[in-house]
Design a protein that fits this description.
The protein has five helices and eleven strands, in the order αββαβββββαααββββ. By secondary structure, it is of the alpha+beta class. Strands 1, 2, 3, 4, 5, 6, 7, 8, 9, 10 and 11 form an eleven-stranded antiparallel sheet that branches. Helix 2 runs antiparallel to helix 3. The longest helix is centred in the C-terminal third of the chain and has 17 residues. This is Hydroxyacyl-thioester dehydratase type 2, mitochondrial.
Amino acid sequence: MFNTLTRALVRHPVRIVTRGHHLYSRSFPPVYDFVSPQPSYLLSLSLSPYLQTPPPPLQLPTAGDLPPGHHMVYFPPQLPESQLLNDGSDAEQAPGKEWVRRMWAGGSVSFHPTRRIQLMDHGVLKEKVTDVESRGSKLFVWFERRMWSGKEQMVAETLQDDTAAIVERRCLVFFKEPKDTNAIAKVVKPSDTPDFSLEFTPTQHLLFRFSALTFNAHKIHFDPLFTQQKEGYPGLLCHGPLSFVLLLELLRINVLDTGKKRKWAIRQFNYKCLAPMYVDQRYKICGRRISDKNYELWAETPEGGYSVKARAVLEEDTSCL
């Protein structure tokens, strides 16, 4: 179920696929949304100081393609508060009460070569569990999310998988025990020099805005006492999807939207979260060209080690010709 690029980022020496796990039979209702430009605009507005780009124009677009990665602020979880766990995470996704802690482990996203999620249009999302992997005291759960755009797509049961505009696969890791505060994290440093990079310090304001835009109530992103006393982390954690979007935006600024005649579009993007990113610490996001169609991207911790590691595959955007 994993493509080659995803396997390269998530391989592990001890991998037990639990085929009979009850999560495979869990059913998720389709999520409908109207792709208003406002959430995408607010995401760009929130990220612009950290990407060192001008704020987006006040005039909202009335049409066009949704920018890569901005689907993260659409199709939010449709859960009442009663279906949230004590830590604010979704009970729908949890494997069981014994799994007391969860983290974002990574994922991938692929974009259809001709279909796009369109602004000012209706959209629908279908989700399912595709992989469950047991690694000792950790349980890795992969969710596949397929998204379509257009009013004719409103009958979710009739949709064909290969017609989805975006296919996102996200991996959550669940733990049976609280974080071991005495554990020493291994620092793996990049061996290559980036072709482009920028530094930024995530603030509590940024985390709050991203939580609001994604309808994410997980307390590790906004409750310092819970994060430190219950989860054992030194401070608030940046969202895994936030680091994913930042790397996509870095690629967009330096490769996709450079004003050059030849235009590129993202075909596939795979990433793995290797170390947490904390509020009020200085991070560096980097990109390196491997070939015209292949880029390596990563985020570095203050110690210079990997926080997130990613690969992007591009294709020529013929829609611009």
